[in-house]
Fold:
Amino acid sequence: MTAQPRASEPIVVPVALGARAYDIVIGRGVLGSLGQHIKALRPGARTAIVTDQTVAKHHLAAAEVALKSAGVECTAIRVPPGEGSKSYATFDGVCEAILDSRIERGDLVIALGGGVIGDLAGFAASCVRRGVDYVQVPTTLLAQVDSSVGGKTGINSPHGKNLIGAFHQPVLVIADTALLDTLPKREFRAGYAEVAKYGLLGDAAFFSWLEANWQDVFAGGPAREHAIAVCCRAKAGIVARDELETGERALLNLGHTFGHAFEAAAGFSDRLLHGEAVALGMALAFDFSARRKLISPDDAARAGAHLAAVGLPTHINDVPGAMPSADRLMDLIVQDKKVKRGQLTLILVRGIGKAFVENNVDPAEARAFLTEKLASA
Ligand SMILES: NC(=O)c1ccc[n+]([C@@H]2O[C@H](COP(=O)([O-])OP(=O)(O)OC[C@H]3O[C@@H](n4cnc5c(N)ncnc54)[C@H](O)[C@@H]3O)[C@@H](O)[C@H]2O)c1
Ligand SMILES: [Zn+2]
Structure:
């Protein structure tokens, strides 16, 4: 856990899903090997790169060079950056552009971007010609540790986020940690909330390591590769044991029930990025666990202190703008379908690194907790 690999060696994390197994290749500069990997995996395949305009500006040329130098043909499809592109309209445009570029069943779609592009391009790949394979080239920290692994793809509906989608595993993930150098600091920090999540939910030693080394993860040395590899190994293990989220995979939602409510209350806007909402949600999940006496107040404080140290929100009044009421937050939690047969499911903790699924939380208890938190904010 604490031994760091050398900077120049790519780390390969296998995702053990039988016939759908694939590798996650992590390292500084691994984008340069994209064409070689694709050629080895699918000799003669053509590719369509789906990306957003911001990512295209920074990294599309390098991706194209990597493909062309290995003799892999590619066409680029650009969409506007942002969550708005996870829409029916953009999905339609991407599917048509993939067909226009004459992608056949044996060819590949490449998702070059953050979670928005991964979800959108992966879903388009799952539908075009009843499914073509795709490669994830994640360019945000969130995408490298979370959304590019595990095969959840989709777009948003006016009914809510991610309601139209499919499970479609990629055939390869190329996570070049150097691509994160151009990511705005705030986006990197938001993605870091998901990194800390893996420590908080299942790996206390990793959490301690992050407390000591987080600055190096931000700085971009070998510590960054190491942290991303630890997260990918954790997610790969969980996904291999519970691909379709019938059990353990739900632990990845630590901080997401409270977090989504705040994210929705802020209108999924720049006021509160997803990772920022998750940080706040995790701090609240730890406080809720302490209120239930499942953990000591010291453990809850330690979890929150680390998130706050990197500059993430951990208190309700860290979120700029008007404060939602407890009723509004509970409405959003119920709409999020986290309430089944009158009971709320929350991911709670018995300690740092010891998360569990609690299916029987009385919504009145959550409401009382949020009311207390809002009153003390
Ligand atoms: N499928 C899953 O399992 C899963 C898991 C978690 C989140 N998600 C989804 O992921 C999405 C959020 O992903 P995200 O945070 O990566 O957002 P994003 O894809 O919108 O990227 C954030 C911003 O950073 C820009 N950007 C991306 N890479 C860059 C780079 N290297 N340099 C400079 N700018 C860059 C993008 O253009 C965008 O403006 C949400 O839609 C969420 O639902 C999916
Ligand atoms: Zn998340």
Observations:
- The first helix runs from residue 34 to 41.
- The CA atoms of residues 3 and 207 lie 14 Å apart.
- The longest strand covers residues 160-167.
- The pocket of zinc ion (ligand 2) is lined by residues 146, 194, 256, 274, 278 (CB under 6 Å).
